[in-house]
């Protein structure tokens, strides 16, 4: 299992099928964060082009960003389910789920607008973006705290999980005080920071899963 902290109902004599299922979850969790990081790398590149005047429309980056957050929340749910304690898992999972709903609705809505299917998004889509904002701040921080409190926790993973909401809050302050595109290089720099953090989370999860996977494989071969 991921070296985050074993849940209370974890049992060391899981069957081979159970081990395979856990390995599959760990795999898509790290892959979801890696995909999210790639999306934000593209997102940063698009904002870089916008800052240089090579792109006038912001609809494309407004679509790529929510897609990246959707993938990140999928990965976050995978981490949340491994936390110690029922309440830690429930609280972190609830906030991550809210973020997933908000991100996916925003991504689909912006994609429909980008492809010309709709000219103007319904008002409820903007309202649901509040779920995305809550998920970014509360979801990531709840999971980060849960990782810190878990037995056998990873400080590096917790710090990386705390980075996306902190970068997001810096962006909120920037937009509120200076405007959405001031300074012009601001969105590019902040998006690059998000990409690095999300790719880092995916990498750490993948590295942490490798020793456990090796031990599980050895145990299964011994029992055969």
Key descriptive features of the protein:
single chain; 224 residues; mainly alpha; 79% helix; disordered C terminus
Radius of gyration: 19 Å
Oligomer: single chain
Total count of domains: 1
| Shape type | globular
Our measurement of the CA-to-CA distance between the termini, rounded to an integer number of angstroms, reads 20 Å
Q: Percent range for helical residues? A: over 70%
List how many beta strands DSSP finds.
0
Work out the helix count. Answer: 6
The stretches of 5 or more residues where confidence is low (pLDDT under 50) are: 5-22, 218-223
Largest sheet: none
Order of helices and strands: HHHHHH
Structural class: mainly alpha
Average pLDDT value? 81
Give the amount of beta strand, in percent: under 5%
